[in-house]
Amino acid sequence: MSDETWSVSTTFYYETQIANEIPIPKPSWTFPSPFLPYAVATYIASDAIAWGPQPRTASRASDRNGAKKLFDQQADLRVEERLTVNMVNYVLTELAAYSRLSDPETGIECGPFDAIWYSDCLIPSDVADRLRAAISKLEDVPDALKDWHPGSNDQVLDLVHPSLYCIVYDRTEDTSFEHLTPPLPPPPIDDVQTYAKNSMSDQFCWLPSDFFVNSTDGQINGQDQDLYRDVTPGSGRIKVQRTFGTWAAYSAKFAGISVPCIWDKGEVKWQDGMTRKQYQKACEEAPKVLPEAFEEYTGELEKTIVPYSLRGKTIQCIIKLANIHLTTENPEYEGGSWHVEGMLNERIVASGIYYYEEENIDESELAFRVTTGAPVYHKQDDEMCMHILYGLQRDTHCCQDLGSIRTSAGRALAWPNIYQHRVSPFSLQDPTKPGHRKILAIFLVDPSVDPIPSATNVPPQQADWAAEVLEEARCDPTSAYSRLPPELSNEILARFPDTFVSRAEAEEYRLALMKERTRFVKVHGRELKHSFNMCEH
């Protein structure tokens, strides 16, 4: 892998039924979406259940005493809770495969779960220095012009945020002077809605930038290219050549050994007069057919990584630059909520974050989780079977934690948008001094389908920019505009097309967009936490 390539992967899980078991055809797109039923509540438990988000390191595979250590750790466990020789040998062999998937040149390694990648040396120091120098121009503004994110308690400073000067349907115009209108939602199948509730906006859409892979092209929405001409090339190299690279990979569905039921001779019957404790003991002592690993590892992991070429393609990325500032008076950041990025309108399939600077901040993590569909259930109240096979109990949420990864200066992360993520709280290391964290976030719009409106075909909407251009023309003696009488030039300013948006209007639209998306996050979170009902009807 060259230094221009970072394989970002998404997980490619397709099932043939949604949560209520209505058959639907497999989709034709390449990347799954968190807003469509192919990713929401159809990622079945047998696919998602993992042994736990333990670090994957080659050192474990090379440890001659590794197997003995694993067996010693389970000496006090019941038989059905213990790892078998097959399982231990398989896992230790598979760890070497994870090592082979890493790239020493770029430092890219597998994260805590499938399709999560990270690197601590992806961005060369000279590129990082140029990025910081370019972004400093966005930071070097009067305090009155600093854009503190609404509701952040003056902790999150937005330098570039897609919610400001976003697309406002039926007002924003493209370069052909046509108003942009909301996209049509996916059609229903057998009268069943095929997208998540509240996931499609008829009011707003974030505006992506277009980048030709291996190029520094691209107008970043909300940025004055004349004033900040150094920002786009600096961040463009990172966005296109490093974050999503010339190849993106997705992880195909892993075919393992499925065990539909643990009972060798049928479910244990509840006898008359039996107490719950006696029944529990009978279940523990009954013969069981337990899940088992393959006898040997034969490269299944490597087979799941399939390249998706981005070379020569124009990809769409939504850009965000933000600083989190902590002070002695405001020393703690409370963390974020579980969420995916964007809504169905933006079609975001993957996210990348680069933590390019930190100072006086203690350790923090980014956690991940994914919803699963309820497993096929065969008997009422058979809680032990479901717990042993899937880790699920009555009324537990069909949602699996995928682990977390430490965030630190210089680290880059990427993951598929079907995973929810959440930033953990953090605070000042030294409470007597201020501290900060600075991030570049990049959201990849699905490159396998038709593009959405972007900053390439939607001109800048800032009314103050247009006023500045007219003022420059008025002061230019060679301009015909400068020869207009003041009354007429004032009339032109007063009659600006309504496609231009004032700063006050843009901030009002941002609040409305945030309110709409907060509502979706709450609804989406409830849907992802659907409970596993152990009733047979």
Automatic annotation (TrEMBL):
Name residues in a coiled coil: none
Q: Start and end of every DUF4246 domain?
A: 86-217, 287-468
The domain of life is Eukaryota
PANTHER family tied to this protein: FE2OG DIOXYGENASE DOMAIN-CONTAINING PROTEIN (PTHR33119:SF1), IFI3P (PTHR33119)
Protein name per the record:
DUF4246 domain-containing protein
Which organism is the protein's source? Mycena sanguinolenta
